Amino acid sequence: MGANIIFVGNYKGGVGKTTSVLNFAHYFSNAGKKVLALDIDPQSSLSEILVSNGKDRTLKEFPEDKTLNYLFDMEIMKIEEYPYIEQKLGGSLISRYEKGGFDFVPSSLFYRGDMGLDAIAIKRMKDHIQYLSILKNWVDTIIDRYDTIFIDCPPSDNLITRSAFLMSDYYIIPTILDGLSTNGVLHYIDTVNKIYLEYCENGEDQRIAKYVFGKKPELLAIFYNMIRGQVDYSTAKADFEREICKLDECDQNIILNSEINNYIDIARSVQSGMVSIEKKDFEHLTAKIMERL
Ligand SMILES: Nc1ncnc2c1ncn2[C@@H]1O[C@H](COP(=O)(O)OP(=O)(O)O)[C@@H](O)[C@H]1O
Ligand SMILES: [Mg+2]
Predict the structure, then answer these.
(1) Ligand 1: which atom is nearest the Cα of residue 45?
(2) By CB neighbour count within 10 A (0-12 exposed, 13-18 middle, 19+ buried), where does 181 fall?
(3) Measured at the alpha carbon of residue 284, what is the angle toward residues 291 and 41, in degrees to the nearest 5?
(4) What is the C-alpha radius of gyration for the chain, rounded to an integer number of angstroms?
(5) How far apart, in whole angstroms, are the C-alpha atoms of residue 12 and residue 107?
(6) Nearest alpha carbon, ligand 1 atom 6
(7) Mind listing the pLDDT tens digit for each residue in 201-241?
(8) How far apart are the CA of 86 and the centre of ligand 2, in A?
(9) How many Cα atoms within 13 Å fall on the side-chain side of residue 115?
């Protein structure tokens, strides 16, 4: 069967993508699921948290050959210069996050000095299926070990982000409820749809892309994060829901009726690589997400 691949994204920064991935990975693994978390954000926040709370070291000290940067570096070299070398990485890329009971592959800002994932995506990758399928080809070699793979996405669009969209089965959008969030979420859904169309529909190249990547990722859920107790959100919610429900793929169920409050304990726990013991918001939310799979 293989794992469900789920990316967590929003082009807006600071809405809780990284926080969500950490919480989802914890609660899925608590529920007995085998989980892998991939950090494709060049800022490497999730990576920094997992690496520093695992064996008390920083990302700078982490072995370079256990990062996504290494995967892309080697596979790009193979495509361009050494096509006869076989895929070798497999499980050697994976690290264990004991505290959370799940596995992960980090990205590093410091790979070979300053070759972060954004530098690799911009300077070394071409907009071609061979490059876009690097992550997917590697994931295929380890997918049977997992039930769920979460991808922490950056708030930016590059070829690595695109390749993650294309290979995923589902996506989840965390959002805050300020005046701009509606357009941001609508734009994000539209972008995912357009990327899939651009690569996987019509035309000859698209036929092979569809063969490689399969179906369009399905929007699994949108949820509200950082809700403040003293604020009245009823108008903001009604506006948001009205706009979202206009989309073909959405009805009001797409917005989870479980929401995440703004709690300092949630933020603090994430910094120490854990879920909040006190606040159960993410636990309840994750249970609802699990029901949808
Ligand atoms: N529910 C929450 N309550 C309090 N702080 C939160 C909550 N969710 C996220 N944060 C904090 O908000 C900031 C941005 O969250 P983060 O997950 O890094 O967002 P993103 O990955 O979308 O940029 C972080 O400092 C994080 O600790
Ligand atoms: Mg983040």
Answers:
(1) 18
(2) buried
(3) 85
(4) 19
(5) 20
(6) 267
(7) 977 789 999 999 999 999 999 999 999 999 999 999 999 99
(8) 33
(9) 15
DSSP-H helix ranges across the chain: 17-30, 45-54, 68-80, 117-119, 129-132, 134-142, 159-167, 181-200, 204-213, 234-244, 264-271, 281-291
What's the predicted TM-score (pTM) here? 0.97
Tell the residue nearest (CA) to atom 26 of ligand 1.
267
CA 159/CA 126 separation, integer angstroms: 8
> How much is the average pLDDT of 281-292?
98
pLDDT digits (tens, 9 = 90+) for 125-167: 999 999 999 999 999 999 999 999 999 999 999 999 999 999 9
In the structure, what pLDDT confidence band is assigned to residue 1 with cuts at 50, 70 and 90?
Answer: low
**Torsion angle of the four alpha carbons 96, 101, 103, 104, in this order, in degrees rounded to the nearest 10:** -90
Q: What pLDDT is stored for residue 55 in this prediction?
A: 79
Write the residue with the smallest CA distance to atom 15 of ligand 1.
Answer: 16
Domains and CATH numbers, the chain: 4-187+216-291 (3.40.50.300)
Q: Count, in order, helices (H) and strands (E) of the chain.
A: 12, 7
The answer to whether 178 and 233 are in contact (CB under 8 A) is no
113: Cα separation from own chain's centroid: 25
Q: At residue 218, what are phi and psi to the nearest 5 degrees?
A: -100, 135
Q: Is pLDDT at 8 greater than 80 in this prediction?
A: yes
Using most ligand atoms within 8 A of CB, pick from 19, 24, 150, 285 the residue to mutate for ligand 1: 19
pLDDT in tens, 98-117: 999 999 999 999 999 999 99
Distance, in Å, from the CA atom of 30 to the CA atom of 20, rounded to the nearest integer, reads 15
